Amino acid sequence: MTNPYNHLSDMVSELGALNSKPQYIFTTGLVLSSILNIFFVIGLYKVCKTHNINTIPVLFLLFFSFLAGPGIIPMPLPLHGIVGIPFPLLVFSPFFALILWRSHEYKLKIRVGAALSLFIMLLGFLIFFPEILTSYFGLKQRFLYMGWTLWSGLLAIRFLRLT
After folding, report:
1. Is 108 a residue whose pLDDT tops 80?
2. CA quadruple 126, 127, 130, 133: dihedral positive or negative?
3. What are the CA-CA distances from residue 152 to residues 29, 44, 104, 135 (Å)?
4. Are 163 and 33 contacting, i.e. CB atoms less than 8 angstroms apart?
5. 74: helix, coil or strand?
6. What is the pTM of this model?
7. Residue 55 contacts by C-beta under 8 Å, 6 or more apart in sequence?
């Protein structure tokens, strides 16, 4: 990175690009968060089983852990763009929660948060429309991360209240 990094326009992967200053911090963060996500999913899965709640929305959270791949295989290596491909599938977690957890809404109270998280995550797919927000590719990418952060935080709070 020769120019100062711009979070609104530059790709997230540029932070971990080969030989960039923050490469190892970026890689460590992605791998660590991917590992911690697995433990998070295991915990949510157990609570779902205990309370007879469908686990499909929880299992879709595992797709977040695919972010370890782009951290381990940095940009511009050819596999960098391939190993993280399943990551956007985590958008199905709030989608299926809205459908499959309707009968548990009285105790989970996540309908509004799920809908908002889903909407924000879907904004991340604006990366496939270069004519929209043309100078803000980094922002478009970050919508997926912001939606996931909101969704996982909401799940943590609501499921902790169940235990």
Report:
1. yes
2. positive
3. 17, 10, 18, 29
4. no
5. coil
6. 0.92
7. 45, 48, 49
Distances in whole angstroms, Cα of residue 15 to Cα of each of 37, 94, 100, 143, 149: 21, 28, 37, 17, 19
| Type of residue found at 11 | M
Are 122 and 150 in contact, with CB atoms under 8 Å apart?
Answer: no
Cα–Cα distance list, 142 to 19, 39, 108, 127, 132 (Å): 23, 23, 27, 10, 15
Q: How far apart are CA 114 and CA 67, in angstroms?
A: 22
Place of tokens 């604006």: 126
pLDDT per residue over 45-66, tens digit each? 999 999 999 999 999 999 999 9
What are 22-30's contacts with CB under 8 Å, separation 24+?
23/74, 26/71, 27/71, 27/72, 27/74, 28/71, 29/71, 30/67, 30/68, 30/70, 30/71, 30/72
84 closest CA partner among 161, 13, 6: 13
Distance CA 97, CA 155 (A): 10
The yes-or-no verdict on residue 1 having pLDDT over 80 is: no
Report the run of H or E that residue 42 belongs to, with start and end.
Answer: helix 23-50
